[in-house]
Queue: 3 jobs
Job 1
Amino acid sequence: MAVMQFPPVYQTVCLAMLAYVIYRTYWEVTVGASRRRMIHKHGCQPVNKTNNSLIGQIVDVKEVKRIIAACLFDMSSLKNGRLLEAIRDRYKRVGWTHHAKIFFQDWIYTVEAENLKCFLATNFKDFSMPDKRKSAFVPLLGHGIFTTDGAQWQHSREMLRPNFVRNQVADLETFETHVQHLLKVIPRDGSTAIDLQASFFRLTIDSATEFLFGESTNCLVDNDTPSSLENSEFASAFERSQHEISRRLRSGFLDIQPKQFKADVKFVQNLVDRFVRRGLQYREAYNLDPEKAEARLKGQGRYVFMNELVKRVGDPIRIRTELLNILLAGRDTTASLLGNTWFVLARRPDIWNKLRQEVEELKGQRPTFEQIKNMKYLKAVFNESLRLYPVIPVNSRMAIKDTVLPMGGGVDGKAPMFVPKGQIVSYSVYTMHRRKDYFGPDADDFRPERWDAIRPGWERDKEENGLLITFFLSSFFLSTVDLEFALAVSVTQYPGA
């Protein structure tokens, strides 16, 4: 009797199906069983979804259309804040924690303070930076403190942290030089328009480069010397590189590096390498005679971050990487905070006048570190600016192991929620800071006086049934004292309303 022969394609399909059944069975009795035990142990409930249809399991078309309508066909909306408001609107419609598929990517969105505390503090090691963000930043920054996780991140933190102490970072005398440069470019006739945000970016890169490298870019100083032009090009190339990184983060799978981006990255890194070589020369001198090398530095009269860094590491690439990571944090977040704060002050003469009353107690003298720390209203203005206009309004983390978030599951969103390995969790600080159940019915209003009763950090309000109030003071390079100093000095120069 002849044996029936099956076509090769049929045999391949059958083998593939058998392999899948074996794999799936193995997965269910190992990973699946482990996840079911975790879900049962913690009482996890399913998270609410924006779209439960069959198509919605592939891509949430409605949400994609809303995002496109909000920003992609009108790029000016990014500047007008419509994207952040579109995100906030989705949270209001769907819930403070929900699931959605955007551009074929599976996302969990949350603005529950308990969840943020979990993946940013208590269970920090269960999460990492998403791979997409790493791949976008690494070409410019390398593998530094803001582009790594785990042991490498911990090593960078331990290496850099000793260099940020009060008497080093809060160098008010050096910072005042750059503030005075800023004030000189601001018209005093009361009618000439000026883009303050651009000036703030120049201020922060000037002060950050002097702190890091021992030499400022001096972009606020009008100078046509070759070195000044090179420094200005450095600042421009650094800014263009950051815009390209932002584009790559928004582009999804379209991850293409233009020639201009490659040229800008090369220019930035080459210039920083020049400073690194100077730092390594100091390292050699320090290793030969520490006391003599230290004495020479003290004669220069200012602290240089790189000179302290090279004492701990001799790899020029690693030094450049960490310097660029800190420069990015120092330039953007501080300039954004200053810009957001002045945006409000220009429209609120009542706040400006109250600031002047506090600053006038200095009687025209340059404020000291302790005097600035005691200016409660000045600090409250910055806190309120960071609350309503956070410098990093949206961010995300990726689970590197199966874990659980304390809220977001169930119909009411109050039950624990299971988060599988590889799941990306996005959060909107912009939305969370405007929640009325956290900050009261006037949460949309800029009211510095609210900080008389609350403090930045993780706090529990007994009168609100143990509600966790969250507030993020973003990690930026320049100390808040420097920013308060800049505002205090500026207030004394302009009468306002």
Job 2
Amino acid sequence: MSPALIRPVLSSATAAAAPELAAYLCDSFGNPTRIDYGTGHETTFVGLLYCLARLGLLGDGDRQALVLKVFADYVMLMRKVQTTYWLEPAGSHGVWGLDDYQFLPFMWGAAQLSAHPMIKPKSIHSVDTMEAYAGEFLYLAAVQFVLKVKKGPLAETSPIIYDISTVPTWAKVYSGMMKMYAVEVMSKVPIMQHFLFGNLLSFD
């Protein structure tokens, strides 16, 4: 992917970062050789947003919009790509994983719902709740997508998601998700060996 694609959002002072940013953007949409996509590519997209923040192009006031608009739109795009081309899931744990392709919509989605007065983790079993609110909340949309692409009872196709629905509060779900993300994504060599490090986001 050409750095020219990213240059329009950069100033003259930050233009030198274009090649590095282009590499993150390119790797956010899967691997063209393996024809796969997974949580490592999703993490790379977040790495791109982090680099833009390091350059001063994004600020603290943008955080909520970055997750609920920019990241949410990215997730929707990737779901269309997944269901159009049926990319291989990269680093998937199969039935014993949270999701074949993505993790952060669940983690950030739990945080988004943490103060909701009515929707609880068990609410994913309510058809009415899912139909009414999946368009507003990342977690519900993520579960809805799993229900769409996997055939069979949730307890059988996605037992981890099913078990999470028995947790009493979203705060506990979010806390558990952060620990799970650290172990199952950030600490897994098969996933993170492809992650890009550079001047803006160094290995140190």
Job 3
Amino acid sequence: MPLVDGHRYLPSTAVFLHEILKLAVCLTIAFYEISKTVPRSMPVTALFSTLSGAVFGGDSWKMAIPASLYTIANNLQYIGISNLEPATFQVMYQLKIIVTALFSVAILRQKITGKKWVALLMLMLGVIIVSAPHDAGPLSAGAHAVHLPRSLGGFKNPLGGSVGSHLLKMKKRSATYEGIEEDERRLGLTDSPGLNASMGILAVIGLCVTSGLGGVYFEKVVKESPKPTSLWIRNVQLATYSIFPALFIGVMFIDGETVARDGFFAGYDAVVVLTICVQTFGGIVAAFTIYYADNISKNFALSISLVISSLVSFFFFDFEATGNVGYLRHTF
């Protein structure tokens, strides 16, 4: 993703805003839903007390477990998206189907028919084919051909005016790759950081595990709860318990120094904001899908997004099918 004013957005801030937006939407609808079930003469304070009791009463504490897992998964999702091509990310993300199925069998004691296992294995085969290594050029898109040494600042006068003026912009003096990349961006040698495929793949694997486990545990709570609870209330509970780790662990503890230096919204543009809105909508819809169907059905439905994201990548992101994928395309 291209940099905005020399910065890339922080996944931790995006996750926090996603949870804030989700809480605002679900809390508003939950408040309206409860107001329809009480007498019109009830004062607003009593209405808020009823809403608070519904959110924090009963087995609401159980939502802290999937909320924490979802918070971790959301951070890993932004990391994966930032380091993989969109279509590649979606293909790798299909591993979640198998992981979720295993958790459903282990935790929910759910029986999976032979046809479903065959379908799961076919999806796994597709992931292996697309993810297998293929020939690459000598330099990847994100490779840096030249790293400027830290001592060039001392030669700014002999090198002449324009180069010397650029070198004056080199502020980091430590011999770190972070400093080198930042100086390269200051000198205009690169427009955006390269994709880190290894980090992206590890992030997607962690995403599949945490998201799958969180979804199965959420399904267990909502379907085995002794007292029926509105799904809007459940979403409020999830968002409430997710905000604290997202803020204190993600934004303040992990990225606190960067946020203090560059600002909370550094690197934000319309694409990032749209992504946060889509994630919010998707999280709400996923809860309803799990309640009325199950996690496996939800993940099978997500496979449709693989086709859609591939088409979008071909047209808008100049994604080219190479290696095994290109071979299969020409074969069939």
